[in-house]
């Protein structure tokens, strides 16, 4: 049976700063259909959905909705026409009632609107009083509030962006049981997920994105999980013996994590040795950043322990981690790592001000220390008063690395260290890592770029849904196996 299309996208391109991230995509959504969108980190999934929902505009191509060409420039325009994006993290106003959260932004809320909300809530099995504060809702019910928001606006297209990433198995089943009946009303669903088993359970059609292209598309029944994995990684596989030939004298265990558990990750255990790089692979949302934050005392954990150089660290105590010589370079360097609107040298010296200053700041010594790292790390600056904001992304990252090197760390945790930097700066960053290893420093590398993890690690652990799913030594590194483990196929 031929299904009538709700939405058709033809030759969709999206270019950011001259770099294409979507490359001539053709994709459609039929009435009553669940179309799953799968792809690795950075494949273009979110960009595509933001174009459909009006957050971004395509650089080229056409979108037809209900047979008519549309060009949404704002999300509210898409909402008005019946296209609604349910985000991965529900946007809830905790001190407003559930009803107020659902109807927020509507031009008119009257008795008829309220009855419509009640009717939809009843149909989808939402059993919480609409008068209750939204802040009391479980994550699963927050997702339902987002879905009701879409349906109250007469949505014909629902985009579910990783809706199950924070749900229990029971809550996932409940969500699917609620969404399936909606398909009978000719609603179509784009379903983005990293959980391949859910894609096969829930979808009618699958499209796989890689590097901004659709590389596989068809009815779900035509594929097996391994087909999707191979489509995501292409023909590439890596034997690390061709890469990373430098040998290091790996020393004693310096950091041990024993049975660490939180709300996000469960029963994590591993060791890291002197002069070793432990790569942590996994998809976005797997719990890698939360794990790193817990190790350095920035996020809580409810059981387990972190032992550094034979001494147990105090949980949720960043000072304890710093004093033990663990340094962390976070994923968002602008938010947590660098001071943009002061001279760059002040960021470099910020971790050791107590050490180099007495009553007053010693600007001369700050600049001398800064110059040492400018020379060693080849940071390109115009003068020593240049603001960090004026540096390139790669040089900003080198400033952040310089800051943690001033503390003479024994363990360095790098979270997405090359995000937003060019190829030359990437190589510079990993040359710095190699120099650290020569000095006996242990490195934990978290990266969504599998090539980067494989080429720069001595061992790799793969985290899936908050648990270690696989551990590999260098001789066993395989792009395909690591990808399968990241998506929970093995």
Automatic annotation (TrEMBL):
Enzyme class, first EC level, given as a word: translocase
Quaternary structure and interacting proteins, as annotated: The complex is composed of two ATP-binding proteins (LsrA), two transmembrane proteins (LsrC and LsrD) and a solute-binding protein (LsrB).
GO molecular function, one term: ATP hydrolysis activity
Membrane topology label: Peripheral membrane protein
Any Gene Ontology CC annotation: plasma membrane
Organism (species): Brachyspira aalborgi
Transmembrane segments: none
Name of the protein this chain belongs to: Autoinducer 2 import ATP-binding protein LsrA
EC number(s) given by UniProt: 7.6.2.13
PANTHER family: AUTOINDUCER 2 IMPORT ATP-BINDING PROTEIN LSRA, CARBOHYDRATE TRANSPORT ATP-BINDING PROTEIN MG119-RELATED
Keywords annotated in UniProt: ATP-binding, Nucleotide-binding
Residue ranges of domain ABC transporter in the record: 7-236, 245-490
Catalyzed reactions per annotation: ATP + H2O + (2R,4S)-2-methyl-2,3,3,4-tetrahydroxytetrahydrofuran-[AI-2-binding protein]Side 1 = ADP + phosphate + (2R,4S)-2-methyl-2,3,3,4-tetrahydroxytetrahydrofuranSide 2 + [AI-2-binding protein]Side 1
Domain of life: Bacteria
Subcellular location field: Cell inner membrane
PROSITE patterns attached to this UniProt entry: ABC_TRANSPORTER_1, ABC_TRANSPORTER_2
Biological role: Part of the ABC transporter complex LsrABCD involved in autoinducer 2 (AI-2) import. Responsible for energy coupling to the transport system.
One Pfam family in the UniProt entry: ABC_tran
């Amino acid at each position: 049976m031929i299904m009538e299309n709700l939405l058709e996208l033809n030759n969709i391109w999206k270019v950011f700063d001259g770099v294409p991230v979507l490359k001539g995509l053709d994709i459609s959504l039929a009435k009553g259909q669940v179309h799953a969108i799968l792809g690795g980190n950075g494949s273009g999934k979110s960009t595509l959905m933001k174009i459909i929902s009006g957050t971004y505009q395509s650089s080229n191509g056409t979108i037809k909705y209900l047979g008519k060409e549309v060009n949404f420039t704002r999300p509210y325009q898409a909402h008005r026409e019946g296209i609604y994006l349910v985000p991965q993290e529900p946007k809830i106003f905790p001190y407003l009632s559930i009803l107020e959260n659902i109807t927020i932004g509507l031009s008119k809320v009257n008795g008829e609107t309220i009855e419509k909300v009640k009717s939809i809530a009843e149909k989808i099995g939402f059993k919480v009083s609409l008068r209750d504060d939204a802040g009391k809702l479980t994550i699963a019910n927050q997702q339902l509030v987002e879905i009701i928001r879409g349906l109250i606006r007469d949505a014909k297209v629902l985009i579910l962006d990783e809706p199950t990433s924070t749900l229990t198995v029971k809550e996932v089943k409940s969500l699917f049981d609620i969404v399936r009946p909606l398909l009978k009303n000719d609603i179509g669903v784009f379903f983005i997920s990293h959980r391949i088993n859910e894609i096969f359970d829930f979808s009618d059609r699958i499209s796989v994105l890689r590097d901004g292209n659709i590389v596989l598309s068809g009815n779900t029944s035509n594929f097996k999980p391994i087909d999707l994995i191979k489509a995501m990684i292409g023909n590439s596989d890596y034997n690390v013996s061709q890469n990373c030939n430098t040998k290091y004298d790996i020393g004693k265990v310096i950091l041990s994590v024993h049975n660490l558990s939180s709300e996000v990750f469960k029963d994590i255990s591993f060791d890291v040795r002197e002069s070793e790089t432990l790569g942590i692979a996994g998809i976005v949302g797997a719990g890698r950043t939360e794990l790193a934050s817990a190790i350095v005392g920035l996020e809580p954990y409810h059981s387990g322990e972190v032992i550094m150089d034979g001494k147990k660290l105090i949980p949720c105590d960043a000072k304890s981690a710093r004093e033990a010589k663990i340094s962390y370079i976070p994923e968002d360097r602008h938010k947590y790592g660098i001071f943009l609107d002061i001279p760059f040298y002040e960021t470099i010296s910020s971790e050791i001000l107590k050490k180099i200053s007495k009553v007053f700041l010693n600007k001369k010594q700050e600049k001398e220390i800064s110059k040492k790292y400018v020379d060693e790390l080849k940071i390109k600056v115009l003068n020593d008063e240049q603001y960090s904001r004026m540096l390139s992304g790669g040089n900003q990252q080198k400033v952040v690395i310089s800051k943690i090197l001033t503390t003479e760390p024994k363990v360095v945790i790098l979270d997405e260290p090359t995000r937003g930097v060019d190829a030359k700066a990437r190589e510079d960053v990993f040359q710095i890592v190699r120099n650290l290893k020569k000095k006996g420093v242990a490195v934990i590398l978290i990266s969504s770029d599998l090539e980067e993890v494989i080429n720069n690690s001595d061992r790799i652990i793969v985290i899936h849904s908050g648990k270690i799913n696989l551990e590999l030594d260098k001789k066993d590194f395989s792009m395909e196996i690591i990808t399968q483990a990241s998506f929970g196929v093995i």
